[in-house]
Design goal:
single chain, alpha+beta, nine-stranded mixed beta sheet, 29 strands, binds adenosine-5'-triphosphate
Length: 556
């Protein structure tokens, strides 16, 4: 219960809002806010703060009621937005000036998670494959690139205004005349506007240029240089991670629709007559083909091999890459039941694409595109060859000169991927009474928190030595303030998989305790083995229970 107190110092009155809390069996008073020197204003401020505190408590109660059997909570995009702000993952860009729609900044733990995600994508798609290499292209490039690609002429969005709520929205070409606003109102289809999606800028005195709206075109313009310098033979892929910019009409849903975002893309080139040499995996996924959509049928769960053999997906390459992409998410802890692949219906498909499938995710606001994957044929290389007058042909494996086809173009937004992992790892533990973010250890912003069980110089010295050593390999934190329970919950909430505690036993026997975030189980290990064991745990090479001696403790 919060209450106002007056403190008189050197004859002046100062008002504070205090609260009594029971910590480790003792009642402690904590100051929540300074309320100023004027009693009347202080009372008003106090009422306002208490109202806000009650709102948060109410929200927490609602959240606890939604907790599923295993502690899984399905929260809304607004709740995720405020969670990310509270914990230092993501902030509105320019928030102190009211925010700037479509732009977000990543905070201390957000930037770590985002960097991990990009590295893991790169490892899976580039480092661990023989047939894919990377580039890092410029954000601003020759404006002729965007003329040749068709972006200058046709990268527009259709703006529609709702007759009822007056809000602007974007309509895809196949949606015109068919959809309604979220508020239920009709759109004014007689007054459509085309809005250019590329941001313009000036280079030097007056040269018009564009901020790139996708990373893909830089891959096409560098295609021949990469081929000539990397000793690749068809089939091969070129990958890139980098910023893209789109002047979206209606940026919304937190990190889902942004004006500045990052893409992780591959253009995979092949001779269209060559078969995919790779085998399919064994995963199942919900499939939603054009035929199912048009005949109002429900999506069906199938294996990728079967989807290709039944010719639901036209080429083996396309089916193979869709499975690879789905497996990347699942290998990092995403819930496979929240994914499906949906074919673009003819009316929405780009004119140059042979076939396009989206990997979709079941966001709290519905099934939406997570990753687009088109078979772009050789449209882009042809366009650049014609517009630049540079021959972009290369040899196929029969010694013939060809313009290879992009048989699959996995194109993934970094921020949409980040949302998937945040939603799928968001749990609430009723016993612990806090959020537990069950991120895959490799994605987790902080791999371990190290702390002395109580403040004692000897314990602190051991903790500092351990931190120094672990920091050579991972992002770890030294956390010595607050009760041990508070330190555990602080780390549970930001997804730290392991907490390492130093106590009397560390002094006497060189042992430390490791606590597992997901289960709260604890093991003892020797300090000399700690790094090796932590590596195995992070790489999921060993089960937690088998990594040391299981112990039972009062505080979980
Ligand atoms: P949408 O239909 O949702 O606008 P799109 O079909 O225009 O997406 P692509 O051009 O295929 O998107 O881009 C590939 C990927 O880049 C998308 O699947 C998504 O992950 C990401 N992406 C595209 N636009 C945005 C955006 N405005 N904000 C965040 N990510 C985006």
């Amino acid at each position: 219960m919060a209450f106002v107190v007056k403190k008189t110092i050197s004859g002046n009155d100062y008002y504070y809002l205090n609260e009594n809390k029971r910590v480790d069996g003792k009642v402690k008073t904590k100051t929540i806010a300074y309320l100023g020197k004027v009693k009347k204003d202080a009372k008003k401020k106090a009422e306002e703060i208490i109202r806000k505190m009650n709102k948060v408590k109410k929200k927490k109660i609602i959240q606890i009621e939604q907790v599923g059997k295993l502690g899984k909570v399905n929260i809304s995009i607004d709740d995720m937005t405020s969670f990310c702000k509270r914990k230092g993952f993501v902030f509105r860009s320019g928030d102190i000036y009211g925010g700037f729609s479509g732009f977000w900044d990543f905070g201390p733990v957000g930037v770590e998670m985002k960097n991990n995600l990009k590295k893991l994508w790169w490892d899976y798609h580039v480092k661990n494959r023989d047939d894919v290499v990377g580039i890092d292209g410029a954000i601003i490039t020759h404006p002729k690139v965007w003329k040749a690609s068709g972006h200058v002429e046709s990268f527009n969005d259709v703006l529609v205004i709702c007759k009822k709520c007056k809000k602007p929205n974007k309509a895809d070409k196949n949606e015109i005349g068919k959809i309604k606003c979220d508020c239920g109102g009709d759109y004014d289809w007689d007054n459509l506007k085309n809005i250019e999606q590329m941001f313009k800028t000036t280079v030097g005195l007056d040269t018009l240029a564009y901020l790139r709206p996708e990373t893909a075109q830089l891959i096409f313009t560098n295609f021949k240089f990469v081929y000539n310098t990397s000793r690749l033979k068809l089939p091969f892929g070129i990958a890139q991670i980098g910023k893209s910019f789109r002047n979206e009409i209606a940026p919304r849903d937190f990190l889902f629709r942004l004006r500045e975002f990052e893409q992780m893309e591959i253009e995979y080139f092949s001779d269209p007559n060559e078969k995919c040499p790779y085998k399919f995996g064994k995963s199942w996924i919900l499939v939603y083909s054009e035929e199912m959509q048009k005949k109002n049928k429900e999506p069906v769960k199938m294996k990728f091999k079967e989807i290709y053999e039944k010719k639901i997906i036209k080429t083996d390459w396309h089916a193979y890459w869709l499975e690879q992409e789905f497996m990347w998410f699942v290998s990092l802890g995403a819930n496979p039941d929240n994914f499906r692949i949906r074919q673009h219906v003819s009316e929405e498909k780009s004119h140059y694409a042979l076939d396009t499938w989206d990997l979709e995710y079941n966001f709290p606001f519905g099934w939406k595109e997570l990753q687009g994957m088109a078979n772009r044929t050789n449209f882009d290389l042809r366009q650049h060859q014609e517009n630049s007058n540079v021959n972009l042909q290369i040899m196929n494996n029969k010694g013939q000169k060809i313009l290879p086809h992009v048989v699959a173009e996995p194109s993934q937004g970094v921020e949409r991927a980040m949302l998937v992992f945040l939603f799928d790892s968001y749990y609430y533990d009723k016993k612990r009474n806090n959020v537990v973010l069950k991120l895959h250890p490799q994605l987790a912003p902080i791999k371990a928190a190290v702390f002395p069980i109580v403040k004692r110089k000897e314990f602190e010295k051991i903790a500092v030595d351990i931190i120094k050593d672990l920091r050579k390999d991972w992002n770890v934190v030294y956390d010595k303030s607050g009760s041990i329970g508070r330190r555990y919950s602080r780390n549970d909430e930001i997804g730290t998989p392991y907490c390492i505690t130093i106590d009397e036993d560390s002094m006497k026997n060189n042992n430390v305790t490791i606590r597992d975030r997901n289960t709260t189980k604890q093991i003892k290990v020797k300090i000399s083995n700690l790094k090796n064991i932590l590596r195995k745990l992070i790489d999921e090479e060993i089960k937690f229970e088998k990594a040391g001696k299981l112990i039972s403790t009062r505080i979980k």
